Amino acid sequence: MDLLQAVQDKCTIEEKNICGDLHLSPTEYKGLNIISPEEELTCREFSRRMGLSLSRGSRVIDRLTRHGYLIRTGCIADRRCKSLRLTQTGHMRRKEIAGRRYAYEKRLSTAYSSHAWKSLKSDIRQLLEKL
What one-character-per-residue DSSP string does 69-130 give? Predict the structure, then answer.
């Protein structure tokens, strides 16, 4: 458990650095990462994926909308709800995040041979399945 905690701590530091550089709160960072560029989500689904109550999720949605990262439109299936999707600015910010995350993983992977890195990733996936 100590090793897993140490890995989580290092990753959290990197995420905080990304948030700081991109002027995002941790919840905005997470919100941009849970919606893929081609999908539309309801506010309820967004909040569920974030692990937040509807009211707390709504505040995150409001901030992301205010910053121009999300757009809310009427939901075709249910007029009472709104659909969310990334704006062009949201797409670009998400790409910046993905690029930074990829660069971090690339730096980590240089300590391993290609085979060892793939094996490590496979082992981590198996550990996650067991947890």
Answer: SEEEEE-SS-TTSEEEEE-HHHHHHHHHHHHHHHHHHHHHHTTS-HHHHHHHHHHHHHHHHH
Average pLDDT, integer, range 29-51: 92
- Report how far residue 48's alpha carbon sits from residue 57's, in angstroms, rounded to the nearest whole number: 8
* Alpha-carbon span 93 to 30, nearest angstrom: 12
| Domain covering 2-130, topology | Arc Repressor Mutant, subunit A (1.10.10)
Residue with tokens 């509807």: 54
DSSP state of 53: -
pLDDT tens digits along 114-130: 899 899 889 989 998 98
pTM: 0.79
